């Protein structure tokens, strides 16, 4: 497990979802300008979800342990 940190630089709430093989899963709401941190397996996939008036959509994707 390694530390993963994300800062919401947007002016709206986002959802951070992190998942990997073996059943690891974390989902957090991140408010504007908020920084979150948690431990996750190296190589876990992270999706940043946002929404507008019509639907939710993926804003960004990254992998734990890779520079972004």
Q: Which SSEs are present, and which pair or pack?
A:
Layout: E1 2-7, E2 14-19, E3 25-30, E4 35-40, E5 45-51, E6 56-63
Antiparallel strand pairs: 1-4, 2-3, 2-5, 5-6
**Major β-sheet strand ordering:** 3-2-5-6
Q: Distance between termini?
A: 18 Å
Strand content: over 45%
Low-confidence stretches: none
Integer-rounded radius of gyration: 12 Å
Number of strands: 6
Helix content: under 10%
How many separate helices?
Answer: 0
Notes on the protein architecture:
This protein has 68 residues and is an all-beta fold. The chain has a domain at 1-45. The protein contains no helices and six strands. The protein has strands at residues 2-7, 14-19, 25-30, 35-40, 45-51, 56-63. The strands form two sheets. Strands 3-2-5-6 form a four-stranded antiparallel sheet, with no helix packed on it. A hairpin with a 4-residue loop joins strand 5 (45-51) and strand 6. The chain is globular. The two termini are 18 Å apart. The mean pLDDT is 93.
Give a short summary of the structure:
With 68 residues, the chain is mainly β. Helices cover 0% and strands 57% of the residues.
């Amino acid at each position: 497990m390694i530390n993963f940190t994300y800062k919401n630089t947007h002016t709206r709430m986002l959802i951070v979802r992190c998942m990997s093989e073996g059943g690891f899963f974390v989902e957090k709401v991140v408010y504007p300008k908020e920084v979150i941190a948690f431990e996750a397996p190296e190589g876990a996939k992270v999706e940043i979800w946002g929404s507008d008036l019509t639907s939710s959509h993926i804003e960004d994707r990254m992998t734990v342990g890779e520079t972004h």
